[in-house]
Write a structure and sequence with these properties.
- This protein is an alpha/beta fold.
- The protein folds into 2 domains: 6-59 and 103-170 and 269-345, FAD/NAD(P)-binding domain; 78-101 and 173-266, D-Amino Acid Oxidase, Chain A, domain 2 (2-Layer Sandwich).
- It contains 11 helices and 16 strands.
- The strands form 2 sheets. Strands 1, 2, 6, 7, 8, 9, 15 and 16 form an 8-stranded mixed sheet that branches. An 8-stranded mixed sheet has the order 3-5-4-11-12-13-10-14.
- α1 runs parallel beside α4, α3 runs parallel beside α8 (296-316) and α9 packs across α10 (332-347).
- The structure holds flavin-adenine dinucleotide (FAD).
- Flavin-adenine dinucleotide is lined by residues 14-20, 41-44, 50-55, 126-127, 154-156, 160, 176, 178, 227, 263, 265, 283-285, 288, 293-297, 299.
- Flavin-adenine dinucleotide binds at residues 14-20, 41-44, 50-55, 126-127, 154-156, 160, 176, 178, 227, 263, 265, 283-285, 288, 293-297, 299.
Amino acid sequence: MSERRIDDYDIVIVGAGPAGSAAAIHIGNLSPETARRTLVLEKAVFPRPKLCGGGITPHADALLHALKVHPDVPSVPIHAARFVYRDVGFCLRWKNLFRVVRREEFDAALASFVMQRGAALHQNEALVDYRQEADGLDVITDQASYRTKILVGADGANSLVRKKLGLVRSDRISRLLEILTPVDADRTPEFTEHTAVFDFSPMADGVQGYYWDFPSLKQGAAVMNRGLFDSRVHPERPRADLKRVFEAALERRSVELDHLQGHPERWYDARMRNSAPHIVLAGDAAGTEPLLGEGISHALNFGMVAAESALRALRLGDYSFRDYDRRVRWSALGSRLRFKRRIAQVLYWGKGAWFYRLGFGLIGLVLGE
Ligand SMILES: Cc1cc2nc3c(=O)[nH]c(=O)nc-3n(C[C@H](O)[C@H](O)[C@H](O)COP(=O)(O)OP(=O)(O)OC[C@H]3O[C@@H](n4cnc5c(N)ncnc54)[C@H](O)[C@@H]3O)c2cc1C
């Protein structure tokens, strides 16, 4: 371990995923002087692996545009989304509905803008602890100590910053499984027709979510990103056997379950606290939506809201963050997250197969399919 030192910063951001990078970039855009007194700690080294479908929505792209960054990475444009429940379904066709990236490339490209905007980025340095002091926080990593006025916890769904605040709840957690399988792009309709599949049939087995097939590129080679999302938006209901359900869904596609990986997501609940004096949480550390589990746009947005709150605190010299949760709740971000949670609660209500068959069939009829 290298010699420990104490450096002073105005803002320390933990995590350089979309939330942490967006926070640092937004600070740089709004106050270059503060960016020079901002440190981003990232425990991994870019390009680092990140389990994710890699779906970037137009809303995420609009936020990147607002941040004035254009992470230039390969992506597969999606012009149609097929929604299925067993033998019924419908297709939404829209040019550039979303695009699919590889997160190791996307996050590395996004993080490069952090330094461009003047903040320091320490990779391979993990937060291990922090302590409240009279005039701020002592942030302790596996390499050094820092004094800061504000700590932004953007350290993902398993956030240590959140854990240390004693704000972890096990009943607001979505579960996700994913595998990547090589495919022949010329013979795979998802590639030739630029289509993503959202298959809600696993709801019949108690999953409060869906199975997905996203066409993706790994180092230039065509792969199918396949996954299962279980929102657990009704936490009181029994847990489905995710591995078994995933295996069955793959079997129907003649795909073997291999190199299975899983990762949780926290879903946002406006009644839960995401701040403490000198500390705010952003991105998955605070929560995302339990409808489709789309978290990249919300993480970018959360990072921006956290950045604005941090700059405001520095301006006023008030580090209580008393109004952070209220600000998030009533922001466009909070409204979107609450709206999607309500839809998820209705969609994943656990009605019988007739309900979903009827719903999917009716939408199909309206869309003329
Ligand atoms: C299987 C799966 C599929 C998904 N598919 C999609 C999708 O298609 N589209 C979409 O929009 N969203 C998707 N999501 C959600 C999306 O990945 C997350 O919402 C998003 O990554 C959240 O960004 P974040 O910056 O908050 O956290 P993260 O991206 O998790 O970043 C957190 C960062 O903090 C770092 N870190 C953690 N602890 C420490 C520490 N102690 N010290 C220093 N650094 C630390 C980590 O290394 C990481 O780089 C998916 C999630 C999963 C699990």
